[in-house]
Amino acid sequence: MAAIGFGLPKDAFTSLMNQYGQEGTVFAGYHYDINFLTIHGRSRFPGLNIWLRNGQKVEVKVPVGCLLIQTGKQIEWLTAGDCIAGMHEVVVTSRTMDAVAAASKQNRSLWRVSSTLFAHIATDAMLKPLGHFADSPLASKYPPMCAGEFIKQELAVINLKGSKGES
């Protein structure tokens, strides 16, 4: 609809977004989220993997009517590392390919649609271990800072902040 509204061919934008899956195609590489919580609904196609604290990689299967709530870096800060930001990825697996084949057979859309909510702490709120977490032996690894400054630091680490002089 946006393309048509701009007077472009109807597939001007969507043709640039096609990510036809071959097993092993990575849609979102191994990472953690910098926000407070990430809430995942069911996706049309499988492929979300998470890593448990013991390092085990697990394919996520969100049951119908359920959500997956994943901790982000901000809650890790507020709990002095008691809750660790969850590592995850989205990649095409054999189950993804089976789901694509079934959708194709039924003439359903092959777009991978997932509903995800990213909850963030307010920019001017202070991130620091709260309550009893302040007494944790790990609390010193999480010094007080404004959430906005924390986000800037995280973006700089992954090179998304931009260079000096850019706005």
Automatic annotation (TrEMBL):
SUPFAM superfamilies for the chain:
Clavaminate synthase-like
By what name is this protein known? Isopenicillin N synthase-like Fe(2+) 2OG dioxygenase domain-containing protein
Gene3D superfamilies with a match to the protein in the record: B-lactam Antibiotic, Isopenicillin N Synthase, Chain (2.60.120.330)
Question: What InterPro entries would the database entry show?
Answer: IPNS-like_sf (IPR027443)
| Highest taxon of the lineage | Eukaryota
